[in-house]
């Protein structure tokens, strides 16, 4: 801790050693702890804590404004201004400012005097100079932040002088005093500023231009008191030729100082406003900014210029904006946007977006300036490609006139690109490129058009931008026309024909426009929904565009399609329009709307791919007519004509063909249409879908549906951009990286070398030697011609090998790409499956989805390495689990599928048992449970006759379902053996994929089946370790199910509990003898099951003979305690011990308790005298200790004679003894459920004799020594209930300290748990009250 911190921690009397009266010091020491804590909280780094502490301090001082607390608070805060912790100084300064603001009667001059006395710069030592300087600085800032400094002229003048003194210590304070002075003077009234200005500002202009702070002070005076400044310095022209270099240097210094803050220095903004005020903005911008700051490019200066541009946007006129947005600065900004990469370099784009957004939002009433700025930023291009993104969020702030003007500019630039109006630039790497094709105008036009069309679509996509339908229609018609139509001659009826291209539209650019149009169509179909996908005229956007396309087709003299239509395609188009008009008659049906959307989408695709779409249109129209003309009764298996497939199968094939296209709009439309036709689905139509999802067939055979991909086209579109990006990134690549790439290529090439290539290489080398005509091995004997021939042979050989390697790589990439496309297609086809199980869960065809979905899950779990496989797996699992197995609705009309489903249940359970992964087995097991649910919920009328006769003919003794279950199609005789073998496999097989939760789910859903499987569990309870543990766990969870109890009659349930108790009793005979972890786990599971059985017995009030079980448990107590003492399997020993005594408590045997003194005597016996001496330090003195009630010889006598009575003890007459004993019972009670801290000796075996009189644990505890109490085992509490007379007599004996000499003859222990019969537990409860009273009386005599 620094010396200042030490001073801060001291009391006020110790801090102020000079002139403090003793009375004041005595008064300061009386301050409360709460008051002193305020100052600690003020210096904490958490802002909320600081503010809360300051508020509480002010509230505290308001109640005592004249007391010593105020003086102490001021001294403490002033002391905190110069503490060694730099983070605490501003906190104390802010607290002092708020204090001075709240108490205006405190004079500022006195506070400033105290600060100067505390931190006197003339007397301070060199080591404490820095804290003293900061103490003065933060003191002045506190006076200024209080808001009272500018009102007190005397304090203001003293503060200004102090800041001038502090400004001399630049090494410590940097420019902070000058900044504070400027901030203070900016708030001072003009009259006072005129008086202060000569003292703070020199008349020398060179001094003014030496630092940003002095120049900022000059600009402040120029703004507030220009007359006084002119009297001091005369007429000053800051933007003269001789002052411009010095201004540039000052701005560079300001930019470097504000580098970390990332904000515009105030001096730059002041110069900008002065230039605008003096009408010298062009000179300032060109000479100072563009020719000065940008001449020697440094990133701090560049960022200052960018921020200056952003701040200047609202201040400039339209002409000044045009000048600024076409200069060197905006070109430099564009180059920065292209070359800067965000991870490693700071990118100014997001900050500039904020400046532009603020400007556009602030000038909503001036659309011309909005349009000028937006067009200017869109005109900054890198070889034709604008640097701003196509999706620019600032567009949302445009006013409707500005949006209209901007859309018109985008369309005009698309049709007639004016490259001269662009601020185009090339990066350094692009300038070095020797390829002349990169600098031709056609390439720039292509890049510009691609950006323009996407910007048009993004304007419609922007949901925050207010747009009219006319503007949306204008953009949609523009994209549609230039995607699929060409102008022959202009006509007034089609406005788009009047717009001619200055550069012809290439096929690649037209493809970009086509893709943008379908993206726009998707946006219009999803986001723009006044009614569902409709405009104000009540028609969907797609329908309106189709009508407009039909209008263009009718103007064949002026307009023609890019791909000319044949007569058949024209007829298909006309039939489509007629079908659309027919569908309008069924507009109220949702199915008609879905068909209309599908027809419109395929109709528009007729312009993109006429041959394919023409066939699809004919098939779709046929299917629509058949579906709408069909009667309400549907037929799944029979078609109208045996030669023609059902219309639903044709439509499913069409939907699969549409899903093969990578279009999200197609995917949505196919999903919507399938949702309306899935009720008419046939088995063959469903099989068409499942064939796509079958992993085996999709890998080995080609699909009927060809999966298309537009990635090649997108790669062609983006090839130039990627090449440019790669060129721009060349400067970031090092030579080491290129060498590593070459090495990796060489390694790949070496790995692809085969033996044939080696033989060819050897043959060429041998031929080269033969050509040389020499048999020796010296290379010098080969001539020049021979060497040239050999080089040519080797070059051709390696070229062929390189082509072979590239061909193999291309083939590998092609296969990988086809695999990815196939997975994407399967993911899209899963949409149809999801629609089917969601909208038609009662359809019997849903039952055919189980095995295909399980095959996908099995395969994906084995090969879920790539992201697509994981996506396919997750989607399949979600559909299978949530939409199929957990669906509330399911099929109730099985027909002739009952026997098939029973067979399928058996197959699924067998498949689950054969899986290697439990997660995969869980899906199969859940599928079997789903089929059981379907069979159980189906009515008996649809079941086959033989399935209902089998239970009567069979010899199985499995219980028959009663009540409404007899009408179900579920045959328990067929299902029970399946799950019985699965349960046996689970209990016997070591690495079984089946788990306990699976069978618990089965038992909870089908308790009748659980009743049939319980004998298997009971059989394995006394088996080997693992089956026993699993069986006990299953029984423990199953016996508590209410559904299972309802399936049993009372005698059956009692018999079952008795059988399980017998098995558990066999297990407990080896209790405490566990040698391995598995055996220990076996004991734990047996005891847990026993406690579960006891809970069931108590709840059902059953009458069972538990004498044998009690004897078994008592017989194993000694071995259990011995194993616990030895610490075997200590992790679960305490748990085993607790379970044992939990069971014994139910049988009426209480757990022995330990006295508190026992835990202290054993450790104390091993302590050395030295440790006793060390421990005695800090204890109470002997005079303060309570004297012992017993002497040491009496304690030794009791330890030597544990059977001695308490007759010689005097009776207790006080109440403190009772309270002490009551407190002593608390630690003893803590030993009931835990393990004692000391090792206990072996128990006295004599207490296990049944003839031993029954004593309560509390009485044994009083009349035995600790070793006997800890180790003794209480006898069975099976004595019958006695009369009150006998209890009183027994009470008298216990009071006198004599134990009964004989006990009642022991009878056969028959534990009756019925409420009406004489209950042992009721008598035990009554005895417990008497024993408690007996214990209290006997202990009071002690």
From TrEMBL:
Compartment list: Nucleus
Gene encoding the protein: MYBBP1A
Main subcellular location of this protein, as a coarse class: nucleus
Gene Ontology CC annotation, any one: B-WICH complex
UniProt feature, compositional bias: Basic and acidic residues: 1152-1161
Species this chain originates from: Propithecus coquereli (Coquerel's sifaka)
Entry-linked PANTHER family: MYB-BINDING PROTEIN 1A (PTHR13213:SF2), MYB-BINDING PROTEIN 1A FAMILY MEMBER (PTHR13213)
Ubl conjugation among keywords: no
Biased composition (Basic residues): 1172-1189, 1214-1223
Keywords: Nucleus
Composition-biased stretches (Polar residues): 1244-1254
Residue ranges of the region described as Disordered: 1-23, 697-752, 942-966, 1152-1311
Keyword Nucleus on entry: yes
Cross-referenced Pfam families: DNA_pol_phi
Domain of life: Eukaryota
One example GO MF annotation: RNA binding
Record family assignment: Belongs to the MYBBP1A family.
Protein name, as recorded: MYB binding protein 1a
InterPro entries in alphabetical order: ARM-like (IPR011989), ARM-type_fold (IPR016024), DNA_pol_V/MYBBP1A (IPR007015)
Position of the signal peptide: none
Biased composition (Acidic residues): 698-712, 734-752
GO BP annotations listed: cellular response to glucose starvation; circadian regulation of gene expression; intrinsic apoptotic signaling pathway by p53 class mediator; positive regulation of anoikis; positive regulation of transcription by RNA polymerase III; regulation of G1 to G0 transition; respiratory electron transport chain
């Amino acid at each position: 801790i620094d010396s200042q911190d030490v001073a801060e921690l001291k009391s006020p009397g110790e801090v102020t050693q000079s002139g403090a009266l003793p009375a004041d010091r005595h008064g300061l020491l009386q301050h409360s702890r709460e008051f002193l804590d305020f100052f600690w909280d003020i210096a904490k780094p958490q802002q909320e804590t600081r503010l809360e502490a300051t508020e509480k301090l002010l509230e505290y001082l308001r109640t005592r404004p004249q007391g010593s607390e105020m003086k102490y608070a001021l001294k403490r805060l002033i002391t905190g201004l110069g503490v060694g912790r730099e983070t605490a100084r501003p906190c104390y300064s802010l607290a002092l400012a708020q204090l001075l603001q709240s108490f205006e009667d405190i004079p500022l001059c006195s506070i400033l005097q105290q600060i100067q006395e505390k931190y006197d710069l003339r007397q301070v030592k060199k080591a404490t100079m820095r804290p003293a300087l900061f103490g003065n600085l933060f003191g002045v800032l506190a006076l200024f932040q209080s808001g009272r400094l500018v009102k007190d002229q005397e304090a203001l003048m003293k503060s200004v002088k102090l800041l001038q003194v502090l400004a001399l210590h630049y090494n410590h304070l940097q420019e902070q005093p000058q900044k504070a002075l400027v901030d203070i003077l900016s708030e001072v009234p003009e009259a006072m500023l005129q008086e202060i200005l000569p003292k703070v500002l020199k008349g020398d202009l060179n001094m003014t231009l030496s630092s940003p702070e002095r120049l900022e002070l000059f600009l402040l005076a120029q703004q507030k008191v220009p007359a006084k400044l002119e009297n001091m310095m005369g007429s000053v022209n800051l933007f003269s030729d001789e002052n411009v270099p010095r201004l540039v240097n000052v701005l560079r210094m300001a930019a470097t100082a504000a580098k970390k803050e990332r904000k515009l220095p105030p001096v730059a903004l002041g110069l900008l406003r002065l230039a605008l005020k003096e009408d010298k903005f062009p000179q300032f911008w060109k000479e100072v900014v563009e020719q000065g700051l940008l001449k020697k490019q440094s990133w701090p200066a560049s960022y200052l210029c960018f921020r200056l541009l952003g701040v200047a946007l609202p201040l400039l006129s339209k002409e000044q904006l045009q000048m600024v947005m076409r200069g060197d600065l905006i070109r430099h900004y564009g180059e920065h946007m292209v070359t800067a990469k965000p991870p490693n370099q700071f990118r100014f784009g997001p900050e500039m977006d904020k400046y532009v957004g603020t400007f556009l939002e602030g000038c909503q009433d001036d659309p011309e300036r909005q349009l000028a700025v937006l067009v200017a930023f869109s005109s900054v291009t890198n070889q034709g490609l604008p640097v701003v993104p196509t999706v620019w969020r600032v567009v949302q702030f445009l006013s409707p006139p500005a949006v209209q003007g901007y859309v018109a500019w985008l369309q005009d630039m698309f049709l007639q690109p004016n490259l001269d109006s662009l601020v185009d630039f090339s990066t350094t790497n692009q300038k070095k490129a020797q390829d002349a094709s990169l600098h031709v105008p056609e390439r720039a036009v292509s890049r510009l058009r691609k950006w323009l069309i996407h910007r048009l679509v993004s304007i419609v996509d922007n949901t925050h931008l207010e747009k009219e339908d006319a503007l949306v229609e204008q953009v949609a018609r523009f994209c549609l026309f230039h995607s699929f139509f060409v102008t022959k001659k202009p006509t007034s009826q089609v406005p788009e024909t009047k717009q001619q291209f200055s550069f012809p539209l290439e096929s690649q650019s037209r493809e970009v426009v086509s893709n943008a149009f379908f993206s726009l169509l998707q946006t219009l179909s999803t986001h723009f929904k006044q009614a569902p996908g409709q405009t104000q005229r009540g028609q969907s956007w797609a329908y309106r565009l189709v009508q407009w396309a039909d209008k263009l087709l009718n103007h064949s003299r002026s307009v023609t399609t890019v791909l000319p239509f044949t007569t058949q395609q024209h007829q298909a188009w006309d039939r489509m329009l007629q079908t659309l008009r027919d569908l309008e008659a069924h507009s109220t049906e949702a199915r008609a709307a879905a068909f209309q959307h599908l027809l419109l989408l395929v109709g528009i695709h007729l312009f993109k791919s006429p041959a394919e779409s023409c066939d699809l249109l004919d098939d779709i129209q046929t299917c629509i007519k058949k579906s709408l003309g069909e009667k309400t009764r549907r037929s799944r298996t029979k078609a109208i004509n045996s030669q023609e497939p059902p219309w639903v199968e044709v439509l499913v094939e069409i939907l699969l063909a549409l899903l093969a296209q990578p279009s999200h709009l197609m995917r949505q439309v196919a999903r919507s249409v399938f949702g309306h036709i899935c009720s008419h689905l046939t088995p063959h139509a469903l099989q068409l879908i499942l064939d796509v999802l079958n992993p085996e067939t999709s890998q080995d055979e080609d699909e009927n549906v060809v999966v298309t991909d537009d990635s090649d086209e997108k790669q062609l579109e983006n090839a130039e951009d990627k090449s440019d990006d790669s060129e721009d990134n060349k400067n970031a690549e090092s030579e080491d990286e290129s060498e590593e790439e070459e090495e990796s290529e060489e390694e790949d090439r070496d790995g692809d070398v085969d033996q044939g290539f080696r033989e060819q290489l050897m043959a060429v080398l041998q031929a080269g030697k033969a050509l040389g005509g020499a048999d020796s091995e010296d290379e010098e004997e080969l001539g020049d011609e021979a060497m040239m021939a050999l080089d040519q042979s080797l070059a051709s050989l390696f070229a062929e090998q390189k082509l072979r390697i590239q061909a193999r790589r291309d083939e590998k990439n092609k296969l990988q790409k086809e695999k990815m496309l196939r997975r994407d297609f399967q993911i899209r086809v899963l949409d149809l499956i999801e629609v089917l199980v969601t909208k038609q869960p009662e359809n019997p065809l849903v039952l055919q989805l189980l095995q295909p979905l399980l095959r996908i899950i099995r395969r994906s779990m084995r090969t879920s390495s790539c992201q697509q496989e994981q996506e396919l797996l997750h989607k399949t699992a979600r559909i299978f689990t949530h939409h199929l197995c957990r669906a509330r609705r399911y099929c109730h009309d099985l027909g002739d599928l009952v026997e098939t489903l029973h067979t399928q249940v058996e197959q699924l359970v067998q498949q689950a048992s054969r899986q290697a992964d439990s997660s995969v087995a869980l899906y199969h097991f859940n599928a079997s449970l789903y089929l059981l649910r379907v069979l159980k919920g189906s009515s008996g009328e649809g079941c086959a006759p033989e399935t209902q006769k089998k239970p009567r003919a069979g010899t199985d003794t499995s219980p028959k379902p009663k009540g409404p279950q007899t009408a179900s199609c579920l045959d328990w005789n067929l299902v029970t053996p399946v799950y019985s073998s699965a349960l046996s496999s689970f209990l016997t097989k070591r690495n079984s994929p089946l788990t306990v939760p699976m069978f618990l789910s089965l038992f909870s859903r089908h308790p009748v089946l659980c009743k049939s499987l319980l004998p298997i569990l009971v059989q394995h309870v006394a088996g080997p370790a693992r089956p026993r543990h699993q069986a006990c766990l299953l029984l423990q969870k199953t016996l508590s199910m209410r559904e299972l109890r309802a399936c049993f009659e009372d005698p059956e349930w009692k018999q079952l509990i008795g059988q399980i108790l017998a098995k558990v009793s066999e297990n407990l005979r080896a209790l405490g003898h566990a040698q391995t972890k598995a055996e220990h786990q076996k004991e734990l599971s047996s005891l847990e099951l026993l406690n579960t059985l006891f809970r069931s017995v108590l709840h059902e009030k059953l009458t069972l003979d538990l004498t044998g079980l009690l004897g078994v448990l008592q017989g194993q107590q000694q071995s259990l305690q011995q194993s616990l003492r030895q610490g075997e399997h200590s992790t679960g020993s305490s748990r085993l011990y607790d379970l044992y005594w939990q069971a014994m408590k139910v049988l009426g045997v209480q757990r022995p308790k330990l006295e508190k003194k026992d835990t202290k005597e054993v450790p104390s016996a091993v302590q050395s005298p030295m440790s006793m001496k060390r421990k005695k330090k800090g204890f109470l003195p002997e005079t303060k200790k309570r004297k012992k009630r017993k002497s040491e010889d009496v304690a030794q006598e009791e330890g030597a004679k544990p059977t001695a009575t308490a007759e010689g003890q005097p009776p207790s007459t006080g109440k403190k003894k009772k309270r002490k004993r009551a407190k002593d019972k608390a630690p003893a009670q803590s030993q009931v459920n835990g393990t004692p801290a000391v090792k206990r000796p072996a128990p006295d075996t004599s207490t296990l004799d049944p003839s031993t009189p029954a004593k309560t644990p509390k009485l044994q505890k009083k009349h035995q020594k600790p070793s006997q109490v800890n180790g003794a085992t209480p006898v069975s509490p099976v004595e019958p209930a006695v009369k009150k007379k006998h209890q009183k007599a027994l009470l008298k004996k216990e009071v006198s300290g004599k134990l009964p000499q004989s006990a009642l003859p022991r009878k056969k222990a028959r534990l009756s748990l019925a409420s009406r019969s004489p209950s042992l537990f009721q008598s035990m409860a009554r005895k417990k009250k008497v024993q408690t009273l007996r214990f209290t009386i006997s202990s009071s005599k002690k």
